[in-house]
Structures are given as C-alpha cells and as structure tokens.
User: Fold this.
Amino acid sequence: MSGKTSTKAFDVVHMGPWEKLDQYELTHPRLKKTVRGKAFLRERLGLTGMELSLNKFPPGRAVPFLHRHKAHEELYLFVRGKGEIQVDGTTIPVEEGTCVRIAPSGARSVRNNSREDLYYVCIQAKDGSLSETGGSDGVPLEGEVKWPS
Assistant:
C-alpha cells in the first residue's frame, strides 16, 4: 500500500494513485460498517495541528448523515469529478478546483450525483488556531537551494 519516509524534519507517505484510493478502508464508528476510499493521514504522517483525509466517492455514494464538529473547521478541496456538498441546507455544486471552508457549526454532507468518481481532500484544523497568516510565519534562510542534477 503506502511507503513511508521519516526524519526529524519531515514525514513522507506515498498513498498511490487517486484511482486506487478504494484500497484504503475505514470502519466508521457511527455507521458500524466499512467504507472504502477514505484514508486519514494524521497517524501516517504524524500530524499534530490538523487532520487530513483523501477521499474517493464512486457514483451514487453520499455521506448518509449530516454532521458538525465541536472545534474543527474543515476545508474541502475537490480535485477531480463532480458532485455536491450541502451546508446548513444550502446545496453547492462542486468539481475539480472547488474549495469549500465550513465552520464547526455548519451541518454538512457530501454526495457524488455524477457518473464519474469524485475525489477530494478534507483538512480539519481547530477553528481560530492560525496565529500567522500568509507568508508571515515563514523565516527566510541564507544560502541557495541546491538541487541534484
């Protein structure tokens, strides 16, 4: 499945092609059934300030319930396919390039109402926790980048 590289400064995991995301499965505690095509990366990458999942929804799949979060906002980045996301009763068409931020209180669900697979990334982070914006957290370093030939 996935190969991993880790150092003190970074972690890398290779999850494979988007088309093969259904090799990953999750037993959802609320549904009590196994869902294919969802891979959480927090543990795989050792994430400490966010959760991230890669998602593949085949045609006709939908999250079968609305949900909110206690403290996390979510960012949905749609990378391929078409579908819909619903937030507080508003249905929003989504496709490659659509980005949707949802506050913790927003009641949400996603569905694929198309004839092709829908792929997206979902990032969760604690609402209001970002202390720096834009590039203000970056610290320039001396020297040049040296790339291998």
User: Anything to note?
Assistant: DSSP finds one helix and twelve strands in the chain.
